[in-house]
C-alpha cells in the first residue's frame, strides 16, 4: 500500500505543478509537440501542420483536458494522416482520446511520470478493459461523450439539444494508465478513479491484471 501511495503521490505532485493553459504547437523535425489544453483555438493550425508538414509523430506534453468536440477533431486529423502519437507527462480527457487515434501510441521515456486519464461514464467491466480502447472501440467510446442527448418531445419523438451532452467530462474521473520510472525499469499500472479523490490519485482503485501495454492502450 505504501508503494502505491508513493507512486500516486509522485504523479499528484507532477500534476499540480502544471498550469492549465491553452494549447501550444511546435514543430521539431518530424515531431509535432502539442502542449496545454485542447481548446478550439488551434484546431485549424494543427490540421494544417499534421497534413502538410512531414509529421510522423504527434507528441502530447502535459495536456490536462479540453472539450470532447475538439478531441474528435484532433483525433480525426491524426487518424486520417496515419501518424503515431506519444505522451510526455500528463494527458487527460480530450488529450487521451486524441492520443488513442494514433497509428501507434507510446509513452515517452525519461524521468517524468507519464499518465493517461481517460474519462468514462461508469467503472469498466474486466471484459471491457481488453478491447474498449482499441481502434473502432476507442472511437465508439469518444462518440458516447460527444453525441447530443436526446430529449423527448410532447409528441413522443426525440430531438437533439446541442447544448446538452449525454456524458460530460468529469474532472479526475476515469481510467488512469500510469508509467513511472524506477531503478528496475518502468512500472505500468491501471487504476479506476471515481472522481471523489480529487488530485489524490493514491485513493484510486488499482485494477488487477490491467497492464496498459497488454490492453493495447500503449505500444511497447
Any descriptors?
220 residues; alpha/beta; 2-enoyl-CoA Hydratase, Chain A, domain 1; nine-stranded mixed beta sheet; two-stranded antiparallel ribbon; 6 helices; globular
Note down, in words, how this protein is organized.
Helix 2 runs parallel beside helix 3 and helix 3 packs antiparallel against helix 6. The chain contains six helices and eleven strands. Strand 3, helix 3 (68-81) and strand 4 form a beta-alpha-beta unit. It has a single domain (2-206), classed as Alpha-Beta Complex (2-enoyl-CoA Hydratase, Chain A, domain 1), CATH 3.90.226. The chain has helices at 2-16, 43-52, 68-81, 94-100, 126-129, 135-146, and strands at 24-28, 31-35, 57-63, 84-92, 105-107, 114-118, 148-152, 158-165, 173-182, 185-194, 205-206. Strands 1, 2, 3, 4, 5, 6, 9, 10 and 11 form a nine-stranded mixed beta sheet that branches. It has a two-stranded antiparallel sheet with strand order 7-8. It is globular, with a radius of gyration of 17 Å.
